[in-house]
From TrEMBL, chain B:
This is TRAP transporter large permease protein. Keywords: Cell inner membrane, Cell membrane, Membrane, Transmembrane, Transmembrane helix, Transport. Part of the tripartite ATP-independent periplasmic (TRAP) transport system. InterPro entries: DctM, TRAP_DctM. Residues 8-424 form the TRAP C4-dicarboxylate transport system permease DctM subunit domain. One of its GO terms (molecular function) is transmembrane transporter activity. The complex comprises the extracytoplasmic solute receptor protein and the two transmembrane proteins. It is a multi-pass membrane protein. It comes from the Bacteria. The chain crosses the membrane at residues 7-34, 46-70, 82-105, 111-129, 150-169, 175-196, 216-241, 247-265, 277-301, 321-349, 361-387, 407-427. GO terms for cellular component: plasma membrane. It comes from Marinobacter subterrani. It is found in: Cell inner membrane.
From TrEMBL, chain C:
Residues 29-157 form the Tripartite ATP-independent periplasmic transporters DctQ component domain. It is found in: Cell inner membrane. One of its GO terms (molecular function) is transmembrane transporter activity. It is a multi-pass membrane protein. It comes from the Bacteria. This is TRAP transporter small permease protein.
Length: 333, 431, 181
């Protein structure tokens, strides 16, 4: 029987926790389930040197599979923005439901098809933290001119309410925050933030709103996909889906551990939530930007509409189930 | 195995004397096309784009520009000769001054191409003009130019922090004492050497019309402006006005302002400085691009897997492991650059070290010290190429290769000290 | 022979033009970074567009500088053997090197770089960050353009080598980037 060796390029460096574990797990699963007929060789960013070239490399067939995040391609294909996580959007469970049982998957393939690729959910970080701030944000006023490292669409929302999004190379982020070159940094969540050491230099750790369920992606070159036999495609699909699920639970686990560590070893860190007026302003800004994105872009409009409709329905159920339960627990404890 | 053969071929081709950058690129092309086909080179635009977007490397042209302006306006010369005068009849004053200026620059950048070239521009002409030995001069400059790799901020430490998963701040703090130890030992070496062979680094000629007090007074006065510039650069980093990369632009603008104050300014001067900067910057980046093609072919033909296999054969035992790991990195440093080493070797060594209960901070500092050495070891030490690129023709490649040896030995000595007496540097070997 | 000289001088002008553009970019880049620092620190104003302009200019500096430095023989060589050789031998080294190393290398980067730019152009790629610069293909096109100019400078190396072989020119210092310091 023929064996297939697929080359996978990931945005992350070697040994990058959680994200990198996801690709390794996917490759192992695929190989095991196929009895060795499907092999996946992983190249990390140190090898291909193009963390943000995954889209182009998989599109051109230089790699068969990519592991990255859809919203990175927003500058190339604006509609890719919607398949990672949206401010004030769905939680991970809700979003997976939209992908697998709502219209999510179909819409995503529609966006990627013209680029000769398929995209699959690639693992979720859970709710990302709102960032490290050196000063407490007490009102909308405090955000005016605040210099913050916050990329992408969330950066645009922040910009709408007066923040100055600032580009700092990741290597200089720590120094820049430590010396007040910038006032705040958004990264991921406790497990990954801990590695960069922000807890040593910033006291206020804000809860998230901008990326409630950051979903990574597996990009698969369409020609590669087509040449795989039916059973190996099913194996690959399953391996991607299981490893994506596993990343969500690993994130939960690793973040809980890291947060326990921060609480114990860095008592200076305080968890904060933005004040109500800030949230309201950002909520409005988000709506406005979405409206702008939908204008004159039929595809974007359909995706936004699908997400909004789905969110409404699914949230109503989350409210009477998960939220109700958490509320109950809060009262009991 | 192709990767290994490629190294040997590249070594021979370099000796022919065709420009280093294109020799790397050309050898990579032959092996790459032979082993993988032309399409392998479809990765090159991505790799070049990564360099283009790497804002930290912007420090290279900006720093060089500062260096060129300081050199063209003779302010650098003034700084170094005045510092040298402070040493009076003691030989080696210029070399020690060079090390001290190098240490200051090291604290403001972590990019080796930037600091070595800037140091070369600032101090090589002065040292040669004062009849310093060529080898001693170039060795001192390369060594003090690479100090930036261990003295924070430093790219090596940032990369290691990322690969091992240690907070950058902890690494920066831990690297301070090893950096200081290097600086001190370099100076001690110069003092001992010039005691034995004063003719290698003659003392500055004395001005018979002036007393020693006057000498010192005028020297101090002359030091102030260029030193003020360096203080501005460093100060802007420490106060957070600028990131380390941005501070180098402040340095360039500051140098131009100094030129205006000293009536050395002209638009022609700025234009010429910019031309020199472009040439030297291009020389540095051409090597980077040639080398990235080289490392691309090396890893895509399986060189990285081969290295991994070799590493897994390292024997156990804490001391045996540490010593062999250091030896492997040192030897690899002769051939491949520090980024490749950090990303190929360290991910394999780190979990082994962690399992042995070795203190990872200490381990990381050992690796960083070791990687710093890799910039200096012939034949592929990039610092050596960079300095050669700006040196006058009478300075030969072999002068630079030989001149660096004592400094490499000092680095190995400090490395050994950190291994044996981690307490001296405020660290411990185990958790 | 006359046409070789004409060609050599013509090619040299192309590299000088690259150098001129790179020098202008160098001055602009220093001013750009300085401006960004001052406006952020003194006026608390940050423009992502201006921050991106920094590395756009920086890319032009080092990329277009490469052919320029080739023209002025500014790329570092290992001189263990090279300095001992006669002008004729040096000319052979440069002639052969230009055709087997420089031009093929530039050709591969150029063709793949062209595809890279074309893709970006067709997608209408822009910066993904808020307030970032549009028309990514422009800055990406520096890659194939530089490759083209490196090939031109490589040809220039060859024509100069031919002039040296006939004895009309000679290599004065082994590389003129040297002596800067
Ligand atoms: Na994030
Ligand atoms: Na440094």
């Amino acid at each position: 029987q023929e064996t297939y060796t697929l080359r996978l390029a990931e945005t992350w460096g070697p040994n990058f926790p959680i994200f990198g574990d996801t690709t390794k797990r996917m490759a192992e699963l695929a190989e095991e389930m196929s009895g060795g007929r499907l092999r996946i060789r992983i190249d990390s960013a140190n090898k291909h040197k193009a963390p943000f070239g995954i889209f182009d490399m998989v599109k051109a067939g230089q790699y068969d599979i990519g592991h990255s995040a859809s919203y990175y391609w927003k500058g190339k294909v604006p509609e890719t923005l919607f398949f990672t996580s949206m401010p004030f959007g769905m939680t991970a469970i809700e979003q997976y439901a939209w992908f697998y049982h709502g219209d999510g998957m179909e819409l995503m393939q529609e966006v990627y098809a013209p680029h000769n690729m398929l995209s699959f959910p690639g693992g979720n970080t859970g709710v990302q933290m709102g960032g490290w701030f050196r000063k407490e944000i007490k009102s909308l006023e405090d955000l005016q001119g605040l210099k913050m490292r916050i990329p992408g669409f969330a950066g645009e929302v922040f910009a709408e309410v007066g923040v100055s999004p600032t580009n700092i190379p990741p290597g200089e982020l720590y120094t820049a925050l430590e010396r007040n070159t910038i006032d705040a940094v958004e990264w991921v969540g406790p497990a990954l933030d801990l590695r960069l050491g922000f807890q040593q230099i910033a006291d206020y750790y804000y809860t998230g709103w901008h990326e409630p369920a950051t979903e990574l992606q597996f990009l698969v070159n369409k020609d590669t996909w087509d040449k795989l036999p039916e059973d190996l495609r099913a194996i690959l699909r399953t391996a991607m889906r299981v490893s994506a699920y596993d990343m969500l639970v690993q994130s939960q686990h690793a973040n809980a551990e890291a947060w326990a560590n921060i609480k114990e070893e860095h008592p200076n860190v305080q968890i904060k939530q933005f004040p109500k007026d800030v949230f309201q302003a950002m909520y409005k800004a988000n709506k406005k930007l979405l409206k702008e994105a939908a204008e004159g872009n039929e595809q974007a409009a359909r995706i936004i509409e699908s997400q909004e409709e789905y969110l409404q329905k699914t949230r109503a159920y989350t409210d009477i189930s998960t939220r109700a339960y958490l509320n109950t627990m809060a009262e009991v404890e | 195995m192709i990767g290994m053969i490629m190294f040997i071929v590249a070594l021979f081709m370099l000796m022919v004397g065709f420009p280093v950058a294109f020799t790397f690129g050309g050898v990579a092309l032959f092996f790459g096309v032979f082993a993988e086909g032309m399409d392998l080179f479809a990765f090159m635009p991505f790799r070049i784009w990564s360099v283009m977007q790497n804002k930290v490397l912007m420090a290279v042209p900006l720093f060089i520009f500062m260096g060129v302006v300081l050199q063209r306006t003779r302010l650098a010369e003034q700084l170094l000769t005045s510092m040298g005068r402070l040493f009076g009849s003691l030989p080696g004053g210029l070399a020690i001054s060079t090390i001290l200026v190098g240490a200051l620059l090291a604290a403001s950048t972590g990019v080796v191409g930037a600091s070595v070239v800037a140091m070369g521009l600032i101090s090589l002409p002065v040292m040669l003009a004062h009849n310093y030995d060529k080898r001693l001069s170039t060795g001192t400059i390369c060594a003090s130019g690479t100090l930036g790799q261990i003295v924070p901020p430093s790219i090596i430490l940032i990369i290691l922090g990322d690969v091992i998963g240690l907070p950058v701040g902890d690494l920066f703090r831990a690297a301070v004492w090893p950096g200081v130890a290097l600086i001190v030992l370099y100076i001690v070496y110069i003092l001992i050497l010039t005691r034995l062979k004063p003719e290698m680094a003659p003392a500055m000629p004395e001005d018979p019309t002036r007393s020693r007090q006057q000498e010192i007074g005028s020297a101090l006065l002359a030091i102030i402006p260029p030193l003020a510039l360096i203080v501005v650069v460093l100060g802007s980093i420490f106060t957070g006005i600028a990131t380390p990369t941005e501070s180098s632009a402040l340095g360039g603008v500051g140098a131009v302002v100094l030129a205006i104050i000293y009536r050395q300014f002209s638009f022609q001067m700025v234009w010429d400085a910019s031309k020199d900067t472009v040439k030297v910057t291009a020389m540095v980046f051409a090597i980077l691009i040639g080398a990235t093609a080289f490392s691309m072919v090396f890893s895509y033909t399986g060189g990285d897997y081969l290295l991994e296999d070799w590493l897994h054969m390292l024997p156990g035992g804490e001391w045996g492991f540490i010593i062999l790991a250091m030896l492997v990195i040192l030897i690899l440093g002769f051939f491949i650059d520090f980024v490749e080493i950090s990303f190929i070797i360290v991910p394999i060594l780190a979990p082994i070290a962690e399992a042995m209960g070795i203190n990872m901070l200490w381990f990381a500092i050992l690796i960083a010290m070791n990687l710093q050495t890799s910039f200096l070891t012939p034949p592929f030490g990039f610092a050596l190429f960079y300095l050669k690129g700006v040196a006058p023709p009478e300075v030969r490649t072999m002068d630079i290769y030989r001149g660096i040896v004592p400094f490499i030995l000092i680095q190995i000595l400090v490395l050994a000290l950190i291994v044996v007496f981690p307490g001296l540097f405020g660290m411990s070997a185990t958790n | 022979m006359r046409w070789i000289i004409k060609l050599d001088e013509g090619l040299a002008r192309v590299s000088d033009l690259c150098g001129w553009v790179a020098c202008v970019a160098m001055v602009l880049m220093t001013a750009n970074v300085f401006y960004d620092v001052v406006s952020r620190y003194a006026f608390n104003e940050v423009s992502i567009g201006m921050q991106e302009m920094e590395w756009h200019l920086y890319s032009v500096v080092f990329m277009l500088g490469i052919p320029y430095a080739m023209r002025t023989d500014g790329h570092v060589r290992v001189d263990v053997l090279y300095t001992k050789w006669s002008n004729k031998t040096k000319a052979w080294v440069n002639l052969v090197g230009a055709f087997i190393f420089v031009i093929p290398f530039a050709y591969l980067i150029g063709t793949y770089g062209y595809d890279y730019v074309l893709d970006s152009y067709q997608m209408g790629e822009v910066s993904p960050d808020p307030g970032g610069l549009p028309y990514r293909w422009i800055i990406k096109s520096v890659i194939p353009l530089t490759a083209f100019f490196i090939a031109v400078a490589g040809l220039n190396m060859a024509t100069f080598a031919l002039r040296v072989m006939t004895g009309e020119k000679s290599y004065e210092v082994e590389h003129s980037g040297g002596g800067l310091a």
